[in-house]
Each structure stands twice: as C-alpha cells, then as structure tokens.
Amino acid sequence: MHDLKALRADPAAFDAALARRGLSPVGQQLVSDDEERRAALAALQEAQGARKALAREIGLLKRQKLDTAEIEAKAVALRDQIAGLEERANTIQTRIDDVLKSLPNRLDTSVPDGKSEDENVVVHVRGEKREFAFEAKQHFELGEALGLMDFPTAAKLSGTRFVVLRGALARLERALGQFMLDTHTTEFGYSETSVPLLVNDDAMYGTDKLPKFAEDSFRTEDGRWLIPTAEVPLTASVMGDILPADALPIRLTALSQCFRSEAGSAGRDVRGMLRQHQFTKCELVSVVKPEDSEAEHERMTQAAETVLERLGITFRRMLLCAGDTGFGAARTFDLEAWLPGQKAWREISSCSNTRDFQARRMNARYRAETGPAFVNTLNGSGLAVGRTMIAVMETYQNEDGSIDIPEVLRSYMGGLNRIG
C-alpha cells in the first residue's frame, strides 16, 4: 500500500502528501505503532530463543533423571509470554494495515492543488464545437424518437439506470467497441484479452477497489464481485508474480461489460445513458518499470485521444487537481467530450498512473538488477463505449433527427452512413 521504510524516514513528508488530499496527519502515529510492533517482535524472538534453550536444558536433565519441575515452570511462563507477544504484534500490525488500507496514493508533484473538479487544469482542446442551425437534442431524445433506445423496457426488466438498444444503435455500440479494440491492438501494441466478469476479493483489493469502494460494486451470494471495470482482472493478472525484466512493458486491452452500483449518485444523470449500472468499456492497462511509467502515461492517454480524433469528437484533456484525483491514482488525465445536446463537457475517458500503489497491494514485482522490485501499473478508458456513442449521436445529429455515421465506423456498420 505504502512504503513503511520511506514513511519512517520522513513522516512529515508523508503527512504533507496526505494534506494535499485534505487528510489529517497520521505519519507519526504510524511510525510509533511500527516501533511498538518491532519491539514486540524483538521481544518475541528473544523469548522464543530462551524457550528453545530451556527445552534443551529440560531434555538434558531428563536424560540425567534429574528434577525438571522448576525449569518446566519457566518454560510454561515463557510459552504464555510468547503467546502474548505474538498477539500484541499481530494486533499492532492489523491496526497499521487498517490505517494504510484506508489511505489513498501519494500524488505526483505535477498534480495541481485544488479541492474539486472546478480546479482541474485544461491541458489542451482538440477540435471545434459544432455549430447547429437548429436546437441540438440530447442523445436520449434522439434515440427514443428513432425507436432504438428503450428505457421503459429496461426498467421493466432490471429497474432504473439500464437501457435496451435496438437495431442500428445496438450495432453502433458494437461497432464502436470493435473500432476501439482494432485501434489499440494494431496501432498501439495492446494485446486483446477476454476477461472474467466475476473476480475474488484479492483481485478487487489489489486494484484498490476494496475496502474503499465496496458499496460501489455488486457482490454475488458466493462472495465474488462483478467487475466495475476490466482494469481489475487485467491488472490483477500479474498479482503475486515476479516478472522477467524483459517481459515489460505489458500492455493489455479488453472490451467488457462493467457493473457499478452508482452508490451516492441519486438524482445525478437520471435521464439517458450517462450513468448506468451496466455499460461497455474498452479498457487499457499497462505494467511497466518505474522509470517508464511517466512516458507510458502519456502514451496511453494519446491512444485514447486517437480514438476521439478519428471519430471527429471535440474533446479536451484535463489534468485532475489534488481534490479530484482518484483514490489509487498518483496522477490522472481525464478526456472530456463536448456534448452539443447537453451543451457541456463530460468525461469519456480517465487515464491514471498508480505508480507502485496497486503493485504493493497485490505484490506484483519484476526482476530488477538490484533484486525484485515493484512494477508500476497504469489504467485508462480507451474509451467508455456508451458515452462515446452519446458523443457521436449528439455531434452527428441532423435536424430531422437522423444521425450520420462517422466515416471510420461505416465499414463496421455494413456500409451504413446514416441512422434514421
């Protein structure tokens, strides 16, 4: 989770990093707890050594048929002392772990200060906002008018925050996912992967989804989790491994269903497809050496941007401020698409460098020249398919309610150039 050795060396710096996220200091308390734990372990080791010595002495006296009652009493006392020291060391370790599990990643120095998304920094804007000679509609208005986006049936089947897509819109969703996979695999060297949609506690914990985000995910009755993103199985595929140095970088992509409870989102984006319990996403994951992670972050973000550029979607890259950077991320770039119907920028991709935060949680290492070292892991959306479809629908809409198909998707749509 966090490097205790580095924390002991400079607890003030650790607390300063937490303060950037608005958190209270814990560094000195953790150092004190760790010192107490190590003192208990040292006493435990000493007591175990003394008990072994007494065991040898008891054995010698018994062979000589001498009285061992006094020494055996000492051995029993040592046994009780050892049990108490073990319990104490374990209790302190659990206390330390519980605190560390709750603490987010340390932010990169390049992350700007700020408390909310209002203080995120625009890195660049690509494309021009389309001007309409008519009042642009939102995606759900277009989809429902075409009879191809059905929320009432989805609600009958599953409740709110679901949708049934039909006909050309269902095919558009599939086309977008295939286009994304083809772009990332053929041009950016990502390896296409089909992943399980159910994972265990270790995979969720290792990718920082537990315990912090348990309420945001769906759990099955047999104790497994529906994946909130393919980041979880892709990243956790190296859990517990010591990788050869020449195996890095590892670049993986998966097009999968994702499931989120959207806890705490009551009243937000209740119309349409922006915030769903189930959605499709093309995920990008990289596993790299620490010295390569910054360049990999830029490379991954550019791969996601390429998809938007080729679709002709106007977007901007945002560097998230300290208060808006996610729990496991050291630095995050969000890509926000311009939605003409909403007249707003909305997140369509989030690309994060977690440095060694996830690697420490899942014990993923590689064979460095100086010995096993933690890898760095990165993850990003390349892209969220549903939100990309929203951007395509609203950007390419016509006054009569029809939707033009971006040229790069027409071969995936069987030559269709317009819906409606």
From TrEMBL:
<feature type="domain" description="Aminoacyl-transfer RNA synthetases class-II family profile">
    <location>
        <begin position="171"/>
        <end position="406"/>
    </location>
</feature>
<dbReference type="GO" id="GO:0005524">
    <property type="term" value="F:ATP binding"/>
</dbReference>
<comment type="subunit">
    <text>Homodimer. The tRNA molecule binds across the dimer.</text>
</comment>
<dbReference type="InterPro" id="IPR010978">
    <property type="entry name" value="tRNA-bd_arm"/>
</dbReference>
<feature type="binding site">
    <location>
        <position position="283"/>
    </location>
    <ligand>
        <name>L-serine</name>
    </ligand>
</feature>
<dbReference type="InterPro" id="IPR002314">
    <property type="entry name" value="aa-tRNA-synt_IIb"/>
</dbReference>
<feature type="binding site">
    <location>
        <position position="229"/>
    </location>
    <ligand>
        <name>L-serine</name>
    </ligand>
</feature>
<keyword id="KW-0436">Ligase</keyword>
<dbReference type="GO" id="GO:0016260">
    <property type="term" value="P:selenocysteine biosynthetic process"/>
</dbReference>
<protein>
    <recommendedName>
        <fullName>Serine--tRNA ligase</fullName>
        <ecNumber>6.1.1.11</ecNumber>
    </recommendedName>
</protein>
<comment type="similarity">
    <text>Belongs to the class-II aminoacyl-tRNA synthetase family. Type-1 seryl-tRNA synthetase subfamily.</text>
</comment>
<feature type="binding site">
    <location>
        <begin position="347"/>
        <end position="350"/>
    </location>
    <ligand>
        <name>ATP</name>
    </ligand>
</feature>
<keyword id="KW-0547">Nucleotide-binding</keyword>
<feature type="coiled-coil region">
    <location>
        <begin position="37"/>
        <end position="95"/>
    </location>
</feature>
<feature type="binding site">
    <location>
        <position position="381"/>
    </location>
    <ligand>
        <name>L-serine</name>
    </ligand>
</feature>
<keyword id="KW-0175">Coiled coil</keyword>
<keyword id="KW-0030">Aminoacyl-tRNA synthetase</keyword>
<feature type="binding site">
    <location>
        <begin position="229"/>
        <end position="231"/>
    </location>
    <ligand>
        <name>L-serine</name>
    </ligand>
</feature>
<dbReference type="GO" id="GO:0004828">
    <property type="term" value="F:serine-tRNA ligase activity"/>
</dbReference>
<comment type="function">
    <text>Catalyzes the attachment of serine to tRNA(Ser). Is also able to aminoacylate tRNA(Sec) with serine, to form the misacylated tRNA L-seryl-tRNA(Sec), which will be further converted into selenocysteinyl-tRNA(Sec).</text>
</comment>
<dbReference type="InterPro" id="IPR045864">
    <property type="entry name" value="aa-tRNA-synth_II/BPL/LPL"/>
</dbReference>
<dbReference type="Pfam" id="PF02403">
    <property type="entry name" value="Seryl_tRNA_N"/>
</dbReference>
<dbReference type="GO" id="GO:0006434">
    <property type="term" value="P:seryl-tRNA aminoacylation"/>
</dbReference>
<keyword id="KW-0963">Cytoplasm</keyword>
<dbReference type="Pfam" id="PF00587">
    <property type="entry name" value="tRNA-synt_2b"/>
</dbReference>
<feature type="binding site">
    <location>
        <position position="260"/>
    </location>
    <ligand>
        <name>L-serine</name>
    </ligand>
</feature>
<dbReference type="InterPro" id="IPR015866">
    <property type="entry name" value="Ser-tRNA-synth_1_N"/>
</dbReference>
<dbReference type="InterPro" id="IPR042103">
    <property type="entry name" value="SerRS_1_N_sf"/>
</dbReference>
<dbReference type="InterPro" id="IPR002317">
    <property type="entry name" value="Ser-tRNA-ligase_type_1"/>
</dbReference>
<feature type="binding site">
    <location>
        <begin position="260"/>
        <end position="262"/>
    </location>
    <ligand>
        <name>ATP</name>
    </ligand>
</feature>
<feature type="binding site">
    <location>
        <position position="379"/>
    </location>
    <ligand>
        <name>L-serine</name>
    </ligand>
</feature>
<comment type="pathway">
    <text>Aminoacyl-tRNA biosynthesis; selenocysteinyl-tRNA(Sec) biosynthesis; L-seryl-tRNA(Sec) from L-serine and tRNA(Sec): step 1/1.</text>
</comment>
<dbReference type="InterPro" id="IPR033729">
    <property type="entry name" value="SerRS_core"/>
</dbReference>
<keyword id="KW-0648">Protein biosynthesis</keyword>
<dbReference type="GO" id="GO:0005737">
    <property type="term" value="C:cytoplasm"/>
</dbReference>
<keyword id="KW-0067">ATP-binding</keyword>
<dbReference type="InterPro" id="IPR006195">
    <property type="entry name" value="aa-tRNA-synth_II"/>
</dbReference>
